[in-house]
Structure formats: C-alpha cells, structure tokens
Amino acid sequence: MTQDELKTLVGLAALAYVRPHTIVGVGTGSTVNKFIDALATMKDDITGAVSSSEASTQRLLAAGIAVFDSNQVDSLDIYIDGADEIDAHGYMVKGGGAALTREKIVASLAKQFVCIADESKLVKALGVFPVPVEVIPMASKRICAQFAAMGGEAVVRQQDGAPLVTDNGQHIVDVRGLVVADPLAFESQVNQWPGVVTVGIFAHQRAHICLLATSEGVKTLGFKLQP
Ligand code: 5RP
User: Fold this and answer.
1) Overall pTM > 0.85
2) Would you report the helix, strand and coil content of the chain in percent, each value rounded to 5?
3) Ligand 1: which of 5, 6, 7, 28 to mutate, most ligand atoms within 8 Å of CB?
C-alpha cells in the first residue's frame, strides 16, 4: 500500500470516533485532509468543526461542514490530527504544516486527542524530524542561538525565498540534531523562552490514542492519560 493509501485508510478509520450531533476538533495536514474528506460523508450528522488552520477551514467549508471559532465552544469531545512523529507514550512532534500553535489550542479544548498516522511516523525517540517552533520574528536569531547552544541546528523556514508566515503572522524555526529525551521537560523549557509562541513538541498535549495505518490494516495504540 502507498503512503497516500495508508492516509486514506486511517482518515476513514477516524470516523468511528466521531459522535453524532457534536463539534469535532480538526487538525491540519495531508492525513487530516483524508479525514475531512471522510467526514464529509457524515456532514449532516455532526454539528460542525473547530479548525486548526486556514487550510483545514477552507477544506471543511468546501465539504459543507460548519466551522466554529474556538471561542464559541467550552470543550470538544475529540480532536483528530496527524503527527510528524509519535512515540510509544503518545508524545509527538507536530508543525510540519506550520499549524502547531492553533493545533495545540484546539487539542487543549478536547477530552480526547486521536492521532491519525501512517506507520512511518512511529519512532523510538522524538527529534529525527526537525522540531518546528513558532516564533515572533524579532526573536528568531536569538532563539536559533539558544538551540545552537543545546547542540541543535536551527533555521528559519523559508517559502518562495522569504520566511514562511504562519496563520498567526509569525515565523517557524526548524531545529535539527536534537534528541528529545524528555519531551515534557523540553516542551516546558522551550515554551518559556521569550519570543517562542509554541514549540512543536506535544507532550503536555499528547495523544490519548493513535490510529496507525499499516499494510496489515489500522492498529489502535492506547496511551495512559497524564503521568
Ligand atoms: C501540521 C501538522 C501535521 O499534523 C503534521 O505535519 C503531519 O502532516 P501530514 O499528515 O501531512 O504528514 O502538525 O502542522
């Protein structure tokens, strides 16, 4: 099975977690796009979605699914999103699509985070995929220097020859060469640096379940709640 077929499979499998008459938290990325396409088949059974990016909002609206602002809801039953990496504890690297801050906000509203991923995303230790960090532009040079002091190599993500601008009007720093041995501590540490909007380590906001698409089918990995 191709990676695209695995993403389609797991996007469809996530429908089992969507309860009728609820508002669903929706992530961002190519795997989530498959989920949105599947969700369109039950658009008349759900109240709508809270979206984590302009891209997902456009796809949801095109599918005929109502999109609510996050401030219009008190909480969500579930949040469904992909990951760049996920480990055996449900800790993740996210932000390859530059939507990490809104993803973390919507995830924080949800009682259950369901990660949908193909088997290439399951890792022993986080950090092979460059860790994205959303930053306020005037702080990017100093934040890159702080990562260099930790042994990482940080660069401002580019798009069409200029720094990529996120949905929030900020920049993304991608950090290579770090093994994130303690994701909870790493997330807490980096998040308190001045100018960091959020780091793309999802440890405090980890997944409760991962639906992992493999060539043998979709496996469900369960993770304990907060340690
Ligand atoms: C976007 C994300 C995505 O969930 C992550 O990049 C995975 O994307 P894909 O499903 O395209 O592999 O964090 O900010």
Assistant:
1) yes
2) 35, 30, 35
3) 28
* Tens-digit pLDDT profile for residues 5-53: 999 999 999 999 999 999 999 999 999 999 999 999 999 999 999 999 9
81 and 119 co-located in one domain? yes
Q: Which residue has the tokens 């022993």?
A: 124
Domain shared by 84 and 119, yes or no: yes
| Closest CA to ligand 1's atom 7 | 83
Pick the residue whose CA is nearest to atom 10 on ligand 1.
31
- Is residue 130 lining ligand 1, measured as CB closer than 6 Å? no
CATH of the domain at 105: 3.40.50.1360
Catalytic residue among 5, 54, 85, 103: 103
Task: Note whether residue 162 is domain-resident.
Answer: yes
Residue 85 falls within a domain, yes or no? yes
Closest approach atom of ligand 1 to CA 116: 10
d(CA 90, CA 107): 13
What is the average pLDDT across 169-186?
Answer: 97
Question: Rounded distance, CA 213 to CA 195, Å?
Answer: 37
Segments forming the whole domain that contains residue 73: 3-123+204-222
